[in-house]
Amino acid sequence: MPQDHSVLFRGPGVERHVFLDVLERRWDPFAGLIEVLKRRGGTGEIIRITPSQQEQDLIRQTEYAGGRSSRLWRYRKLLPAMRGRVVDALRSAKEAPAVLYTADEGVWGELAGSIIREFGGRVRGVNFQHGLLLPVKARYLRLRRTLNRVTEGVVGFPVIGCGFGGSRSDTYLVYSEAEQAFLREAGREAVAFPRLIKRDLIMAARTEDGPLGRALMALPACVPGSEIRCSLEDFIRKMAPLLTAVSDRTGQPVLLRPHPGRGGDIAARMVEELGLGPNIEFDASADGAHVAGQASWVLSAHSTVLFEAALLGLVPIAVRSSCFEDLLPFEHEVVDVRLPLRDQLEKTMSEETRSEYADRVSNEWAFEGEVNQIVDEWVQLEGAGGPR
């Protein structure tokens, strides 16, 4: 059965803070903010809305298993139901200021934006960056928005995302100054606050024992329409020499993390086909916090785990190939599988490089006052609703 909204906390104030979780994650992007809101005098209720497990399975199948083109059919019941749950949670606040928080772009950001507009400026929308998103304007943005207006008018919900910064949220909370600058240049309100978004991950990582000199590679989803320009099978084939070279250098098997939206069946089949077994150890639980206690070097083409690695003092290594060649919006190392690997790994996997990244980790966690100032601005709701 679908879950209705859950009241996490009731405080003395009148503010209504509603968090929409589309998918449960290993770490909670909202945890840091919720921690602050519970001690905030103005907080009235903190509400969390999460799809049922069956609904989350449908979302994963649609978004990560080639079902995006059939959203209109697949989401015909789910999106109206989710809209109803969010609207009920916001409407019960009556005239009190309310903020709707999401951690997803794509069609879910569009759904949140349409709900915000429905309340005519009484609700502010805040979108937390949840993945590594390239600061690039989506193609055919005007056409996408036109299609969404048509489907909203006919069936009551949008069916296509509008890219990073394209949704109709009022404010974006992002990983770095690069995403912040991109959004501000596009006329959007944005705040770079990685310590807040990754609070849950950082606190979990601090309980780990520390890096063991191993390497981890995070596989991309490789779904149509994503940044990776090849299939998952082709990607693993191109990575095979690198996986072997990295294993040889560390003297240990490389931890291989399948994308959480794809599962490990394809990766396991390819590892066997390519004879990589001695060089690979699968670790399906290798979220950022777990990686901090297992690995010193983290490799991927385009993955949030690279940003998390840098935040935790590990070495993020962006792997270049014909599948993906774009620059990432934060400092990282680079290995190109089309070039000789030995000299590249000599530098990127050196003790000097590892120490350099470890020394950058910030030990400053006292940001509650700064967060409260930001929330003060969010609950001043005049003009909320994003671009039309």
Describe this protein with a few key phrases:
388 residues; alpha/beta; Rossmann fold; 7-stranded mixed sheet; 6-stranded parallel sheet; 13 strands; 39% helix
Tell me what the structure shows.
This protein folds into 2 domains: 6-193 and 367-378, Rossmann fold; 207-358, 3-Layer(aba) Sandwich (Rossmann fold). The two termini are 35 Å apart. It has a 7-stranded mixed sheet, with helices on one face. A 6-stranded parallel sheet has the order 10-9-8-11-12-13. The chain has helices at 31-37, 53-64, 71-74, 78-91, 106-118, 141-154, 177-185, 194-197, 199-205, 232-250, 265-273, 288-292, 304-311, 341-348, 351-358, 368-378, and strands at 6-10, 15-20, 43-49, 98-102, 123-128, 171-174, 189-192, 214-218, 254-257, 280-282, 295-300, 315-320, 333-336. The longest helix has 19 residues, at 232-250. The protein is of the alpha/beta class and 388 residues long. Helices cover 39% and strands 17% of the residues. The protein is globular, with a radius of gyration of 21 Å.
Please outline the helices and strands.
Elements: E1 6-10, E2 15-20, H1 31-37, E3 43-49, H2 53-64, H3 71-74, H4 78-91, E4 98-102, H5 106-118, E5 123-128, H6 141-154, E6 171-174, H7 177-185, E7 189-192, H8 194-197, H9 199-205, E8 214-218, H10 232-250, E9 254-257, H11 265-273, E10 280-282, H12 288-292, E11 295-300, H13 304-311, E12 315-320, E13 333-336, H14 341-348, H15 351-358, H16 368-378
Parallel strand pairs: 2-3, 2-4, 4-5, 5-6, 6-7, 8-9, 8-11, 9-10, 11-12, 12-13
Antiparallel strand pairs: 1-3
